[in-house]
Every structure is written in C-alpha cells, then in structure tokens.
Design a protein that fits this description.
Helix 3 packs antiparallel against helix 4, helix 3 packs antiparallel against helix 6 and helix 7 runs antiparallel to helix 9. This protein is mostly helical. It has 11 helices and no strands.
Length: 294
C-alpha cells in the first residue's frame, strides 16, 4: 500500500471520531478496577472489538450515504472516500465487512469469558452499525441516530466492558455510562447540524433536521451540560471522592466549544467543532476514569 493509499484509507475510517469507541472501554475498565476486578485481557479485547465495529460503521456509512445521495458535492463536511471517487463503494463496503469480521475475533474471546450474552451484544452492535444508514429502513434517516449512539457508545459499551471483567453490573457503571454516551452523541449532533440543509434535500430526517437548527444546537448544549452534571451528582451522592470532578478541568474547553457550535455558520467552523468535540470526549473520559479510580 502506497503512502497516498494509506492516507485515503485513514481518512475513510475517520480516526478523529474513534474516541467514541475508546472512551467507554476506558471508563468501564476504571469502574471495574475501582471494584478490584479489573482484567487486562478482556479490557484489551473489548477495546479492539469496539474500535473495529466503529471503523466498520464509519465505512458502511460512507458508502450508504453516497449511494443515497446524502454525500453530494454540496456537502460541507470533510471529503468522503466514495463521494470524492478516491475509493469505490465496493472497496469501502468490503473494508467495512472485513472490519466487522475482525471484531468477531476478540468477540469470540469475550463470549468465552462473559457468556453468550456478549455474542448478542456484539451482533446487535454490528447490526446497529449497518442499519444506521443502510438497509430498507435506515434509522439514522428517521431521527433515531442520536438515541442509538447514546445506547451503544454509552450504556452498552461501558456496561459491556464492565461486565466482561466482573461478570455483573453495578449502579456506578450505569451512572458512569451516562456522560460517556452524552458526549459521544454530541459528536454526532455537530455533524448533523452542519448537514441539516443537504440532509433535508435528500430526505435524511436526522433529529437535527426534525428539531431544526436552533433546536439541534440546544440539544448539543444540553448534552455537554449533562455530562458535567453527572460527576457532581455522583460526588454529592457519596461513595466517590471529590476527584470524580476531575473532568471539570475541561469545563472552560467545553464552554468555548458550546459557544462555537451555537455561533457556527459554515462548514469549516462545524468541522473544527466536530474535531474539538471528539477531543473533549477523549480528555473528559481519561479524567473521569482517573477520578473514578481515586
């Protein structure tokens, strides 16, 4: 593979968004470690599986949106591999299926560790990735993308990571999943606000299209705000130290980001805000995990 081909494929998998797969595993593992039940191999397998499933989802989304007309020349987002002609839909779909197949390897190990329920969770995650923009009724085109991102990149990913290490669930793990899912959803919301006009033209009725520009920007602000309220509630509720508030160190960054999203009017600013939201998710997750471990 040439250097140019490598750059094209790296762009296609959207590495800046992969924090959405990494952070839930870090936080779920931190809760397991807090309970004295951290297991390195299941944690690594969960991380590998989550990243491969997201890469597969990103690639499938690239091909599906192009074929449905959502990724046209009028789109303001970063260059898409199929839209630009850098890769064919056949190549991208093949890579998506290869990524999903790769996720089955750590998934098999996790099933041996955590039981057959893990197989069900993995199959559901892959099905959700494929059905986001593909199939006869792509739920991302019907305003359900935000809900599914919160469910799979928040609740399912954090709780699944915790479960394969401990064999159980806990209230703290559920609470820890909430801000993780909120910020993962916020990444999608920025993307969808930017694309409201072009999505509306092709009948892609994301939640941002349904809420309208102002409503979607308020949704973004609400998701970010909720992420910072959860550590405060955990601390006030007892059982964790004040160090659970470590994510508040990123509050100035979050406040600037909310202001940017509320004011953004062009694709360049939205694309910068998308990358900044992914970075915020990453730093928040690391600090939150550290606070939970303290």
């Amino acid at each position: 593979m040439t250097e140019r081909s490598l750059r094209i494929w790296l762009s296609a998998i959207r590495p800046a968004t992969l924090t959405a797969a990494v952070v839930p595993v870090i936080v779920g593992s931190a809760v397991a470690a807090r309970d004295g039940r951290f297991r390195a191999l299941p944690a690594v397998a969960a991380l590998l599986g989550a990243v491969l499933i997201q890469i597969g989802t990103n690639l499938a989304n690239d091909a599906d949106d192009y074929e449905r007309g959502a990724d046209s020349a009028a789109r303001q987002g970063p260059v898409r591999a199929t839209q630009s002609g850098l890769l064919s839909t056949r190549q991208v779909r093949g890579a998506a299926w290869l990524s999903f197949a790769g996720a089955a390897l750590p998934g098999g190990y996790l099933a041996a560790v955590g039981g057959w329920s893990i197989i069900g969770l993995g199959v559901a995650a892959i099905a959700a990735g494929l059905a986001y923009t593909g199939g006869p009724w792509p739920y991302g085109y019907h305003g359900l993308g935000d809900l599914f991102v919160f469910a799979f990149f928040g609740l399912a990913a954090v709780l699944g990571t915790y479960y394969v290490q401990t064999g159980a669930l806990s209230g703290l793990a559920v609470a820890a999943a909430l801000p993780v899912g909120a910020l993962a959803t916020a990444i999608l919301v920025v993307n969808n606000i930017r694309d409201i006009q072009t999505d509306r033209l092709v009948g892609k009725r994301t939640l941002a299209v349904r809420l309208g520009d102002r409503g979607a920007r308020r949704e973004f602000a609400a998701l970010v705000t909720a992420a910072y309220l959860v550590p405060l509630a955990l601390w006030q509720g007892g059982g964790v130290s004040a160090l659970v508030l470590l994510p508040w160190l990123t509050l100035p960054q979050a406040a600037r980001l909310v202001g940017d999203v509320l004011a953004a009017q062009d694709g360049t600013r939205f694309n910068a805000a998308l990358r900044a939201t992914a970075r915020l998710h990453g730093w928040y997750g690391l600090l939150f995990a550290g606070g939970l471990l303290a």
